[in-house]
């Protein structure tokens, strides 16, 4: 049965269209349906009270459905919330739909078949949004527990991510696995440029929010078994193992580089843009596995180069042959 209290927001610059959608939803039993006639108004309403499902026209003046999706995802990061986004569209090309999915859209309803698709799609969206938000709530609880475990020395207290000690443990484990079973170990270092300047400009509270937002964004872009750690205020690390050495390349992490550099992070102080430099330090069984200290030192040297050149660098540690 549909959840009558599901919070829904309908966004369409054509008042007639938004009323048609709203009435159809209310007729189906949904009671909490709000309407916005432009994207800025929708963002204002979402700031006041988030929704589980947002239905928006793709083509709108000032800010279209894709740009609105970008802004909503930024809001969601700040609020640790997930909004299921459905776009109303007349576009049916695979290229257009693929572009929208890459921007974070969850589903589409074709205007030519809206009467049949609307209510079933919203019913399914309700279930997906509930699951996503339940997972986010559970993860937030785990992170909070990590912060409160003063006896734990492997968690960053501000973000709940692993700290430098945890990163070394995971690096050592991955190198052992690489040596015994093959494959490759990756240590990706991420350095944020101008952190101290941002701290002076925005203050301690906003920087804590920024660190948490960056952590959430990176966590959403890595694989489930990869280890995400915060080494210090402006340094993050990802430890990953690849069964196939050829897959261990900068291309495997390009989405992280773009995810940090191309989208600002929303905080109470407003949207804060960060510039990240990245270096990938890799080792594989075929070339020999280094000790963890050598791997870390090589990665740090690579990151220094990346910070000065503003490039995504790739380095390999030297390996001492065993007698």
Automatic annotation (TrEMBL):
On whether Phosphoprotein is a keyword of this UniProt record, the answer is yes
Chain segments carrying region Disordered: 285-323
Provide the protein name.
Response regulator receiver modulated diguanylate cyclase
SUPFAM superfamilies assigned to the protein according to its UniProt record, in alphabetical order: CheY-like, Nucleotide cyclase
Biological process (GO) annotations held by this record are: phosphorelay signal transduction system
Q: Name one GO molecular function term.
A: DNA binding
PROSITE patterns documented for this protein:
RESPONSE_REGULATORY (PS50110), RHODANESE_3 (PS50206)
Keyword field = DNA-binding, Phosphoprotein, Transcription, Transcription regulation
Task: Report the residue ranges that make up the Rhodanese domain in this protein.
Answer: 2-52
Cross-referenced InterPro entries: CheY-like_superfamily, GGDEF_dom, Nucleotide_cyclase, Rev_trsase/Diguanyl_cyclase, Rhodanese-like_dom, Sig_transdc_resp-reg_receiver, WalR-like
Q: Which residues form the Response regulatory domain?
A: 7-126
Source species of the chain: Tamilnaduibacter salinus
- A Pfam family annotated for this chain is GGDEF
CDD domains listed in its UniProt record: REC_OmpR
Could you tell me which residues carry 4-aspartylphosphate?
Answer: 57
Please verify whether the record's keywords include Phosphoprotein: yes
């Amino acid at each position: 049965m549909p959840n009558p209290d599901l919070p829904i927001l309908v966004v369409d610059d054509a008042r007639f269209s938004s009323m048609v959608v709203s009435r159809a939803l209310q007729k189906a039993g949904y009671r909490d349906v709000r309407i916005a006639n432009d994207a800025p108004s929708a963002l204002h309403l979402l700031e006041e009270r988030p929704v589980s499902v947002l239905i928006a026209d793709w083509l709108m003046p000032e800010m279209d459905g894709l740009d609105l999706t970008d802004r909503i995802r930024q809001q969601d990061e700040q609020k640790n919330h997930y909004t299921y986004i459905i776009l109303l569209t007349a576009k049916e090309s695979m290229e257009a739909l693929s572009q929208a999915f890459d921007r974070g859209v969850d589903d589409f309803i074709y205007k030519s078949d809206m009467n049949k698709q609307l209510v079933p799609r919203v019913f399914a969206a309700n279930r997906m949004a509930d699951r996503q938000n339940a997972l986010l709530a559970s993860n937030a609880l785990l992170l909070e527990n990590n912060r409160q475990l003063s006896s734990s020395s492997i968690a960053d207290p501000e973000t709940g991510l692993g700290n430098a000690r945890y990163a070394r443990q995971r690096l050592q484990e991955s190198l052992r696995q690489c040596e015994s079973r093959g494959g490759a170990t990756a240590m990706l270092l991420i350095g944020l440029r101008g952190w101290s300047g941002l701290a002076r400009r925005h203050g301690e509270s906003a920087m804590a929010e920024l660190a948490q937002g960056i952590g959430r964004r990176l966590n959403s872009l890595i694989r489930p078994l990869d280890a995400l750690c915060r080494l210090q205020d402006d340094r993050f690390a990802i430890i990953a193992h690849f069964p196939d050495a050829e897959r261990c390349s900068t291309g495997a992490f390009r989405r992280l580089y773009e995810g940090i550099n191309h989208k600002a992070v929303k905080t109470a102080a407003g949207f804060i843009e960060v510039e990240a430099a990245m270096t990938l330090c890799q080792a594989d069984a075929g070339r020999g596995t280094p000790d963890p200290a050598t791997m870390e030192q090589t990665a740090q040297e690579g990151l220094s180069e990346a910070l000065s050149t503003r490039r995504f660098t790739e380095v390999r540690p030297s390996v001492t042959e065993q007698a």
